[in-house]
Amino acid sequence: MVPIQMVDLKRQYAKIKSQVDVAMQEVLESAAFINGAPVQMFGKELENYLGIKHVINCANGTDALQIAMMAAGLQPGDEVITPSFTFIATAEVIALLNLKPIFVDVDPQTYCIDPGKIEAAITPKTKAIVPVHLYGHVCDMDAIMEIADKHQLLVIEDNAQAIGADYTSKDGSVKKAGTIGHIGCTSFFPSKNLGCYGDGGALFTNDDALAAQIRMVANHGQSARYYHDVVGVNSRLDTLQAVVLRIKLPLLDSYIQARRKVADTYDAAFANHPKIVTPFRAAYSYHVFHQYTLQIEGADRLALQTYLQEKQVPAMIYYPVPAHKQKMFAAFGSSAFNLPITDELTTKVISLPIHTEMDEDQQSHIIESVLSFLK
Ligand SMILES: *Cc1c(COP(=O)(O)O)cnc(C)c1O
Fold first, then answer.
1. What is the distance in A from the centroid of ligand 1 to the CA of 96?
2. Is 159 exposed, middle or buried (0-12, 13-18, 19+ CB in 10 A)?
3. How far is residue 375's CA from residue 373's CA, in Å, rounded to a whole number?
4. What is the whole-number distance in angstroms between the Cα of residue 88 and the centre of ligand 1?
5. From the CA of 349, how far away is ligand 1's center (Å)?
6. Where in the chain is the domain with CATH 3.90.1150.10?
7. Relative to the CA of 65, which ligand 1 atom is closest?
8. What is the CA(64)–ligand 1 centre distance, in A?
9. Predicted confidence band at 332 (pLDDT cuts at 50, 70, 90)?
10. Calpha distance 42→238 (Å, rounded)
11. Cα–Cα separations (whole angstroms), residue 60 to 46, 76, 81, 114
């Protein structure tokens, strides 16, 4: 059996190697490493795929979030509502900009921010909501947008884990995750569903003025060459990454299908198991399974992880410590937030390998290993 990895990027590369190698070679020979033509071309292609007016490429997903908040003009002391059950970047950039992270608990089924708990967290200082489409499940965006409209708040979607996911509104309209709020942010980190071969990221918006502001902030606050209107950052997608993304974007839907097939097989194997809660799929969210995450009940999750390791099955805890309990937020008094669902999930979740290259032998071995421990 081929060794099992959380994400098998080597085998994925092998299938597109001839294309990638040629495209990379062309970049090397052109020496257009920064702002080469493929960077703009990829941006246009991603606009078409997402059905959005503007894609602005940047250096990584963390930068995308930071640039979004800078471009939106958030000011020190402004409050930003976000979940604590997420990768740290979401909350980190809020604090970095001297904004105040206001943590709201997640829904126990979707693991995404619970819209029913947002309004109670809103104060006169609240300026934005940053929902995270965790593990590839889209948040309840109708409810979030309704609250945002009512209170005139900006919505910045952290779409690093859900690129390509569809969201179906109550009115039946379908949009891509990341294109529903005012700004969407994503990451092209190699292991993400659309990953490049280094760091990369992007912002999406339908708002022309916001797009112009985002472009300016991402490029040293520059409005015209060597004229700098605002304090910005230097955050670019490089040409080598863009050519990889141009090859992988047309494959994204097939990558999502492959992930969903793995998820379906896990779901069937673990259905109705007394110690396992399989991932929930809300009707409005087309889950793209960036992660396949179980909750383990009435068994020792860490012992399961160790047991799986002995069977050559990697498994990860995303995330063992919620943001509000991280030391970095001690000065914000964040540990005082009362987030019982988040706290409980961080003690129960475990993510199994899921990727585009999983074969039947591998998956059977993973399933048998999990079931033999939990019998
Ligand atoms: C990966 C990730 C990020 C950060 O992306 P980078 O490209 O690594 O900076 C932000 N938010 C979430 C939810 C992520 O999973």
1. 15
2. buried
3. 6
4. 8
5. 19
6. 251-373
7. 10
8. 9
9. confident
10. 11
11. 16, 23, 22, 27
Cβ 158 under 6 angstroms from ligand 1? yes
Q: Which residues of 102-134 are buried (b: 16+ CB within 10 A; e: fewer)?
A: bbbbbbeebbbbbbebbeebbeeebbbbbbbbb
Does pTM top 0.90 for this prediction? yes
Of 137, 156, 134, residue with least CA distance to 86: 134
Q: What is the DSSP string of 56-109?
A: EEES-HHHHHHHHHHHTT--TT-EEEEESSS-THHHHHHHHTT-EEEEEPBPTT
* Cα distance between residue 262 and residue 358, in whole Å: 7
CA atoms within 13 A on the CB side of 86: 34
For the domain covering 9-250, report its CATH number. Answer: 3.40.640.10
- Amino acid sitting at position 346: T
Residues of the chain with CATH 3.40.640.10: 9-250
Looking up tokens 């060794």, which residue turns up? 3
pLDDT at 231 over 90: yes
Ligand 1 lined by 92 (C-beta under 6 Å): no
Indicate which atom in ligand 1 lies nearest the CA of residue 201: 7
Evaluate: CB of 87 within 6 angstroms of ligand 1: yes
Amino acid making up residue 266 = Y
Is the CB–ligand 1 distance for residue 60 below 6 Å?
Answer: yes
Task: Say which CATH topology domain 251-373 has.
Answer: Aspartate Aminotransferase, domain 1 (3.90.1150)
Query: What pairing do the DSSP bridges indicate for beta strands 201-205 and 222-224?
Result: unpaired
What gap in Å lies between CA 99 and CA 320, rounded to an integer? 25
Provide the annotated active-site residues.
192
**pLDDT, tens digit, 9 for 90 and up, residues 336-352:** 999 999 999 999 999 99
pLDDT at 331 over 90: no
Task: Evaluate: CB of 66 within 6 angstroms of ligand 1.
Answer: no
